[in-house]
Hints:
The structure is a homodimer.
Chain A: H1 22-25, E1 31-32, H2 45-55, H3 71-83, E2 93-96, H4 98-110, E3 116-121, H5 125-133, E4 137-144, E5 147-148, H6 150-159, E6 168-171, H7 185-198, E7 201-205, H8 221-229, E8 235-240, E9 252-255, H9 258-271, H10 277-288, H11 292-318, E10 322-324, E11 332-337, H12 343-353, E12 355-356, E13 358-359, E14 372-376, H13 382-401
Parallel strand pairs in A: 1-12, 3-4, 3-6, 6-7, 7-8
Antiparallel strand pairs in A: 2-9, 4-5, 8-9, 10-11, 11-14, 13-14
Helix pairs in contact in A: 2-10, 3-10, 4-5, 4-9, 6-7, 7-8, 11-13, 12-13
Amino acid sequence: MTHIPFATNFVEPAGSPIRELFPYLSRPGMISLAGGYPSPSLFDTEGLQEAAARALSGPGALQYGATEGLPALREALALLCGARGITCSPADLIVTTGSQQAFDLLLRIFIAPGDTVCVETPAYPAAIQALRLADAQILSAPVDEQGLDVEALAERLQRLPVAQRPKLLYTVPSFSNPCGTLLPAARREALVRLALEYGFLIVEDDPYGELAFTDERPASLYAVGQRIAAEANPVLYLSSLSKTVAPGLRIGWMIAPADVLRRCVVAKQTMDLCTSPLAQQIAAEYLGAGRYPAGVERACAEYKKRMLALSSGLRAGLGSNIAFVQPQGGMFIWARVAVPVDAKRLFEAAVQCGVLYVPGAAFYPENPDLGTLRLSYAAPDVEQIREGVARLTKAFDQASTS
Amino acid sequence: MTHIPFATNFVEPAGSPIRELFPYLSRPGMISLAGGYPSPSLFDTEGLQEAAARALSGPGALQYGATEGLPALREALALLCGARGITCSPADLIVTTGSQQAFDLLLRIFIAPGDTVCVETPAYPAAIQALRLADAQILSAPVDEQGLDVEALAERLQRLPVAQRPKLLYTVPSFSNPCGTLLPAARREALVRLALEYGFLIVEDDPYGELAFTDERPASLYAVGQRIAAEANPVLYLSSLSKTVAPGLRIGWMIAPADVLRRCVVAKQTMDLCTSPLAQQIAAEYLGAGRYPAGVERACAEYKKRMLALSSGLRAGLGSNIAFVQPQGGMFIWARVAVPVDAKRLFEAAVQCGVLYVPGAAFYPENPDLGTLRLSYAAPDVEQIREGVARLTKAFDQASTS
């Protein structure tokens, strides 16, 4: 115990609501539909072993590196962005320790206590947590089955006093966490125009965009911003290798204007000096070896199979007791209980029956919809998903009748 | 260019004064006595290749890991601390993305704008920069040839209004950056007692402690704190594998009381979720293989040889024009120009002559002593050091006579 007073936000800090589920995970036989972990069966261990051996044959992987990232990796990531329809050069991006760090950097350089940040709600809990610790004023933007409801946001912004207008808006437009929704092209353009009209920056977080189950792949918000506004593009683009290669690398990146990147680099110098050059060099070698596209293709096929198992299982087992939109990509099904069941009781029954999910409250900065839950199909295999759904069905029965 | 206003501290942020020297480094033939980079010739590439191969043979290195760090690495680091005379269990420490991140975490959880942090001066520039960005009030603690002048600090604290007393004190007691000094045992005890008396925490940053050239190895401040105050130990211990294994891993760690660690974990969740599990697993395998002690021994021998080359070279070439204390370990010689020479002119002449050092101003939060310079003997070999000193001597002549 220390006697030195903590800063206000750390006197009684709430930890991650998802990480609080960890103790349940270690129960024998538990099936988890909770975490956002990619499937270990999809890790290209052989490719990464080869990449590591190559990375360690030169000296660069072991020394300090430039805060901006290793030139070889920045080049490889710029090429990867090109394949996603984003025109950028290595100088337009910096490497970050996961895209989580990129968001944290943006909050540091832009947000003073009380500044407003708009966030699609429900939202990624670590983004909400970062906003809380930054003392940001959180403005919730509503979503529907197609993602961020841009019209509703426009109305909300119109009513807002100028001093409360957001500086940033955080969104995961492609296969969002937790909703799994894909923002249609028309809404993307409308959102970019809204940012230009109201003078905020869009933080487009895109870890899942390539994990698509259909051919519907609207251009990224960043690309839309380039097209509409060119140099005045209001979109900052974040992405990560965590969902498509391996989270263990902790390699993310951010595309932003030079003045933003320069300040992020200053902040990053005091945070971790640079992202592990060893992990960076391994990532660069891996991307350079050309194994990435096949890995993504494998992931899409496998996740689609698992998503279909979970969707059809839920429909068969729970029928009209639960409502959800079948996702077109990503890792998550966002469901709403359609009958009166106490959320706490349902979760306890599920744990009892040996299946875990994330209660939806974790994804709301305020006024949670307690009837919601996030189910991930990424980590369990089809067999486990079937058994998980059976257990969830049993839990539903128990919670409804008890 | 973005039109969104930056947070106050990022409107015109100063970058790292050391990193500003980078452009000079790429000049052909330049000899650098500037950086704090370890010698690449000391990297145990073979040992790290083996460690990487083993790390990638299991699944743990590629998945997300606990924010606290991988259990295997926490165990290995607790053992390493044991060898340094610090009694701790794996639960007493967390892994950080370099020890730089540990300091940043401590500032986040303890320091509100205006809170006072005491820092030995001259000090590590990235620590000063982190304090500036955290809006801390910086209280300079004077140093002499033996490191932090605890008596002078005590006098300063006595005169200080209670409201301005520091919450934290940052020090590198063993082979400090930039001074290379080793704080004697008596001063260590006095400093710990001062912390207990005035109610501040000591942040003991110890990246260089094992790089000793003599047998004088006083107990760490942390161990002194354990002995004097047991559970009320006012010392937080930071260290890193950057100087003894390889900076490219970005593996640091922090020992602190449970309530401090818990809050650092919450802050780290929003910063980078976890330190690269791949780098962590490689570090754990490397430490587990038992190659660490021999690597440190090699480093001590090599750095001592280089230090002696630089010391004797400076004495022979510059004589009474320069004053310095020969270091007993670490990577740096801190020197003071003993004759009137314009600092800017000297630096320009040195660059002209093809040798680089860090002008001392970089190490002061305020009122820099412009007659100081930091010379590192870690990266250049003995031959380069000799040539570097010859060039510095020439630069001195040019700057004094012009």
